[in-house]
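Continuing from the previous page of notes. For each protein in this section, the sequence appears first, followed by its structure tokens. Read the first protein now.
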Amino acid sequence: MDQQLRVFVTVAEKGHFSRAAALLYMSQPAVSQHVRALEQSLGVQLLERGNKQVRMTRAGEIVYAHAREILGSYARMQKLVDDLSRHAGGPLAIGASYTFGEYILPRVVAALRQEYPDIAPAATIGNTSAIADKVRSGELDVGIVEGHPRDMKELHAEELAEDRMVLVAAPDHPLVRIAAERQGKWTNPPSDPDEIRSREDLKQLNRLNGLPQPIPTVPEALSPYAWVLRESGSGTREAADDALDRLGVVPAEILVFSSTQAVKEAVIAGLGISLLSHWAIRRELHSGELRLIEIPGLPHVRQFSLVTASSFRTRAVDVFIELLRERRELTGLDV
């Protein structure tokens, strides 16, 4: 039955009997025979056969979804049984959301290869939802994603680390000078309507008379500038939006870039300020290309979690997780 399921899944994914046969190193008649045998055993038609390609029926879609789960479970079972009789080795499919995958994971994988040369890691980088879905389906053995374990439905999840989102700007940005002058002293935003009107009147009067403005509130200090942010749908953008909303900041302009590296380069070029993971900016802070701006209410903290499809894990997954937790100098998780 497992061979029939494997053949059917391959045909469904490739859309052609001939392509599936080539991938499975089987003859096309043998592939067709396996699919027909599966259809006969289930009593339903799974594929609509056309001249150029095949398409799944509604029953085929149902069988396909469950067949992938069954094959994934079988593969995980086989790896677990194999682990009982041998040391850690074999393939290890790791997934990570962009921030962790781009700035932390490469060093961890390098250490894993050095300590466990028989493990063959393969890394997939994507957004949190995509990585979680691949772990659920069995395409990935383990994932590191943004979010708290309580938010990870149908997955075995555990806390890994907290990431600090910090405010950064180019060294010559006006906000760097303003923050240095303030030395951490900022005015709390007024909440009473009368206080708000009174503060606005005072600011206008001071402008007319050429007098210094009152100590700015955080929203007043941060709202006049352009902000450089990731695209909507990314975890970094979601965290930035949450922080801006919590602080009451309404950016004068938002410039959008689809990668963290592009956001950093834009900030260095003076296009605006940004809220970025401290993992992503360590080199730029050390080189002086970026400056950290201390503001009340920041850094913004977000949770990263480890996710697996089951509490039963292969030896390779276990040693990878142990490496993450024990070799923290590799990951910077304690920084």
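Done with the first. The second protein uses the same format. Note its length before scrolling.
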Amino acid sequence: MEKYLYEDLAKLEDSHWWHISKRNSVIELIKLIGRKNLRILDIGCGTGGNLKAFSRYGEVWGIDNAAEAINYCKSKGLKNVKLGSSDKTGFDGATFDAVTLLDVLEHVEEAKTLKEIKRILKADGKLIITVPAFSWLWSRWDEVLHHKRRYTSSGLADLLAKSGFDVQKISYMYSFLVLPAYLVRFIKSKVSGKKYSSDFELSSPLLNKIFLTTSRLERFFWMTFGLPLGTSLICVAKK
């Protein structure tokens, strides 16, 4: 991710509907583990917005490979954070009950990262993943974020299975965004010149509220039935 975006992320991760919705969706999956004395690692913790929320369910650690991200975390008083990579976390084996990998897998070498996560998870530990969906939604925003790929449900499920994980739930999210996202990104792709505007930018307060409410209603459907289309994928898999 470009360095200038960390400031945007730090400012908006507690108010932008997309960040709030994703965080709440992951929390619902953490709740399904069924207890609160968990040890959780958030790989690619960014500026720390998820760490405080996840701490309600146990001891939470965060790692990120960007010093800017870790500095923001520490400025918020978060102590269990350190520089680290997704394939070399520096933790002992069988340390964590759950690992969250939220919009990270698309940045890294998949096989090495999943091997490391499997190593540090306890027996029957859970891996919770979010990734961007569908290559045809690729845009300049993916390039600004340094994405290497986007995923389909079947492709992600196959990757996890080959890495020794048992996929328990997988679904697309934000189905209501597919058409507008495609159109907006197509238009933005035609704009050249100055620094690309951030998709982290906060929409109007009204739209922010509408999208947050819509995503909350949608969550019931993807958790219950699964959705066949969306701009993101969410998955929980067991070691």
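What the second structure shows: Residues 205-224 form the longest helix (20 residues). Residues 193-197 have pLDDT under 50 and may be disordered. We return to this in next week's lecture.
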